[in-house]
Specification:
heterotrimer, A mainly alpha (239), B mainly alpha (269), C mainly alpha (303), B: 269 residues, mainly alpha, globular, C: mainly alpha
């Protein structure tokens, strides 16, 4: 039997960081402009896929870059930054190619139906919404929001991974890398589904009225991630 | 995006029986494999694969019930959430539990699943009355599936060996996704107003058999477990379940035709 | 590592990822995967029975993650028992395609059978003709993803094991495919019966095009159309993601100290900035080219 109290007190900081990482992922998902199934038919603004899917795709790309960086440096900030950059690249490439399809393949201008003027470019929006739809494509405000979401998600995922990896134990590195990565993936999935329930599966970005529901999701994520963080620290610390 | 038959799915087998079958069958399979591998030999590891199939059937049944309410985010997300919880709980339970590892994993998965269910209903206001119970069930079945398939791969659920043989090698990923899709796919694959419980269950067992075969493939390089028997039994179960599934499709479908035109206007009225 | 070797490997990875992305999207067009399938699923209910392959294997990212992970697992098992790498990756991809085939068959049969009351028949020739195509595309996707993952681990020294890395790239390629190429299928190909550029009016939901250039339309006709635009751009998207996220760490060799690591982060941020500006340019051009759909109400009143 492992020394539960001892491991927990020795790694209290890791637990806090993992919990924070989970909350960051949860916050990040609110920034990612996702229109769900209607967006795939140019019926709603945002990327035409599910929240969880896009957030997981971006966050896990960030995990790959963070994992590669973790291999060569001890600097926590650098690991987090490279996680953020990986996720940002994935999400902005996805959004711009999605934009090509909306503009060149479907023939719709990018437009938001939730606001009258784009908060960043001040462009008029409502006149460009085609009949019977709730917007289409990815207007600048949603694009920027998505990039922010990618950055936060990458930082969150990187933080979880990094905090799990530096837990003190006696096991060889390859084993710790495997277990920390799979744990980070588990925590990432949990924290990308919770906000997706919060926003009902679709959101246009930080200008969307649904964005005000953020605190609820963060609270839920804090509770759940805290529990999973304790479990993760105990599992890895006991090795 | 549920097009299911409204509130609550129609069931032929009662849910309590399935829950009992999932927990009991799963744990019996896992423990039987654990002890019999030591007593008789590595080829008994297939029992844990059978345990995992019990868990998969249960999980698929829980997904079926909760998804018929329409979650607004599609069927896959709830499974990813539950499998994520199951994964974390499994690693924790096996790490601290020793011989009682699977039981502790199941309990901790149930606790976190229940908490997430409460949060989803109370804080996030998702408004699905059976959310708490469903999250608990799916997360717990996820833990059983993950332990079952790991044990089928290496013949034990001893944490040190799971870490070396299953996690560090990355095979945990295939357990996660093959087990996860075996739970998610059945209801998703039979989505529609005329979905039937037995057809969904036949799909669940068929996909469970595929997960078992994959565990057998990995087991073939581990000396402590035997892949041959796991693969052969998995193939047999797959064949039986697929035949049954096709029979039920023939029973339920409007028409099965080799080829042909669309139904005529008169026919549609 | 020799910088030139690194660049060569990155080029190979980028090329493999581009092929993977394109074949992933075409697979989802033949089989009608992911979000656009909600219209295929809805059509019979709206009295439009069809001959389009109706499947949804639990969302595109998990389904692609499944085949890539199976491929990675089988390949990793074979490699550890001494099989040559090319053979191991090929057998892994073949098994993954076979499993994906069973998922496709059960999804199509199950979903069609569950639409009995809408009189949607099950056409067996659709299964016989589409499933081999679906498996072929999924073989290409899995094989290319395995090549990407294998090169990242062996040459670029990525610490994750093969099945895990294949799992992550599977999720990512599915997320990208369902965000980019699928829109071409869902918003344009399924609704060619409405005017180009009009978006999909919610009133038209379920009214998908069911007649083809010759005969009745099926999934293979759809992939023919999407191969002209949706498929290739998905390939570019996934290729760019994999290439750019690795390229910045190869150009600024992060193994040589943290300063170069930060340089790679800055390079990544610049790339993202360029993409934001590019997106803005597309937005402006599209607004000018297509013009507003309605007149400003105030202007109308004034007139």
């Amino acid at each position: 039997m492992i020394d539960i109290a001892g491991i927990l007190t020795a790694n209290i900081l890791n637990i806090v960081l993992i919990t924070l990482g989970g909350a960051l992922i949860s916050l990040a998902v609110h920034f990612v402009p996702v229109g769900g199934a209607p967006a795939a038919m140019a019926q709603a603004t945002g990327v035409g896929t599910g929240t969880v899917q896009l957030a997981a795709g971006a966050g896990l790309t960030g995990l790959v870059t963070a994992g590669a960086m973790m291999n060569v440096t001890d600097s926590m900030l650098l690991v987090l930054a490279s996680g953020a950059v990986g996720a940002m690249i994935m999400i902005s490439v996805t959004m711009i190619v999605g934009q090509w399809v909306y503009v060149y393949g479907v023939g719709c201008p990018p437009v938001s139906a939730k606001v009258k003027y784009d908060p960043i470019t001040k462009d008029r929006q409502d006149l460009y919404v085609s009949q019977g739809t709730e917007g289409h494509g990815i207007p600048t405000v949603s694009f920027v929001s998505g990039v922010i979401g990618g950055a936060l998600g990458g930082i969150g995922g990187g933080l979880v991974y990094y905090s799990l990896l530096i837990i003190e134990n006696v096991a060889p590195t390859t084993e710790i890398v495997g277990i920390a990565a799979i744990f980070a993936i588990g925590i990432f999935f949990v924290n990308s589904v919770i906000p997706s329930y919060n926003i009902g599966g679709t959101i246009e970005g930080f200008h969307d009225p649904k964005f005000r529901r953020v605190p609820k999701a963060i609270l839920s994520s804090l509770v759940v991630t805290f529990l999973t963080a304790i479990m993760g620290v105990l599992a890895i610390g006991g090795l | 995006m549920s097009t299911g038959g409204g509130k609550g799915a129609h069931a032929q087998i009662s849910e309590n029986n399935i829950i009992a079958f999932g927990i009991a069958g799963g744990l019996i399979g896992i423990y039987a494999a654990y002890f019999l591998v030591d007593l008789i030999g590595g080829y008994m590891s297939f029992l844990a694969g059978l345990g995992a199939i019990c868990g998969i059937l249960w999980g698929a049944s829980a997904v079926r019930r909760v998804s018929s309410y329409g979650l607004g985010t599609g069927v896959p997300s709830i499974g990813m959430l539950a499998l994520g919880i199951g994964l974390v709980a499994t690693l924790f339970g096996l790490a601290v539990g020793g011989i009682a590892g699977p039981i502790i994993s199941v309990i901790s998965a149930a606790i976190i699943g229940y908490i997430v269910g409460i949060l989803a209903n109370r804080t996030l206001g998702i408004g699905v009355p059976i959310m708490e119970q469903s999250m608990t069930e799916i997360a717990t079945s996820g833990a059983i599936i993950i332990i079952g398939l790991s044990t089928a791969m290496i013949g034990t659920f001893n944490f040190e060996e799971v870490v070396i043989e299953v996690i560090a090698t990355g095979y945990m990923a295939v357990i996660f996704i093959a087990g996860g899709l075996a739970v998610l796919h059945p209801y998703n694959a039979n989505l529609g107003p005329d979905e039937k419980q037995d057809r969904t269950f036949a799909t669940a067992i068929e996909k469970g058999a595929i997960a078992m075969i994959l565990a057998g493939v990995v087991a073939s390089i581990n000396e402590s477990a035997s892949g041959t028997l796991t693969i052969l039994i998995g193939l047999l179960i797959w064949y039986i379940a697929f035949t049954e599934f096709y029979k039920l499709v023939k029973r339920d479908a409007y028409k099965i035709t080799g080829s042909g035109l669309l139904p005529s206007k008169e026919e549609l009225e | 590592m020799e910088p030139l070797t690194g660049m060569g490997v990155m080029a190979l990875i980028g090329a493999a990822a581009t092929i993977a992305g394109a074949s992933e999207d075409l697979e989802s067009d033949v089989g009608s995967q992911s979000n656009p399938n909600s219209q295929v699923q809805l059509a019979p209910q709206m009295m439009y029975p069809h001959r389009i392959f109706n499947k949804a294997v639990s969302g595109e990212p998990p389904s692609n993650a499944l085949m890539c992970t199976i491929g990675g697992t089988v390949a990793s098992v074979l490699m550890s028992s001494g099989t040559s790498i090319v053979l191991a990756l090929t057998i892994g991809a073949i098994l993954a395609a076979a499993v994906h085939g069973t998922f496709s068959v059960s999804a199509h049969l199950g979903r069609s059978a569950s639409q009995k009351r809408f009189k949607q028949p099950v056409y067996l020739d659709i299964i016989r003709s589409h499933v081999p195509v679906i498996m072929g595309y999924s073989f290409i996707t899995t094989f290319c993803i395995l090549v990407v993952s294998y090169l990242m681990i062996t040459v670029l020294q990525h610490p994750f094991p093969l099945p895990l890395l294949a799992f992550i790239w599977g999720i990512t390629v599915g997320a990208i495919g369902s965000s980019t190429g699928d829109v071409h299928y869902g918003a344009e190909r399924e609704f060619q019966n409405v005017e180009f550029g009009s978006g999909l009016n919610a009133a038209n939901s379920g009214n998908i095009v069911r007649k083809a250039e010759s005969g009745l339309r099926n999934g293979i006709d759809n992939s023919w159309f999407c191969a002209k635009f949706g498929g290739p751009v998905t390939g570019i998207a996934f290729g760019m993601t994999v290439f750019l996220s690795g390229w910045i760490t190869v150009v600024f060799d992060t193994t040589k100290g943290d300063a170069l690591g930060w340089a790679s982060v800055i390079a990544g941020a610049i790339i993202v900035l360029v993409l934001i500006i590019w997106n803005r340019n597309i937005e402006v051009a599209a607004r000018n080219a297509y013009g507003p759909y309605k007149e400003d109400e105030k202007a109308e009143v004034a007139a």
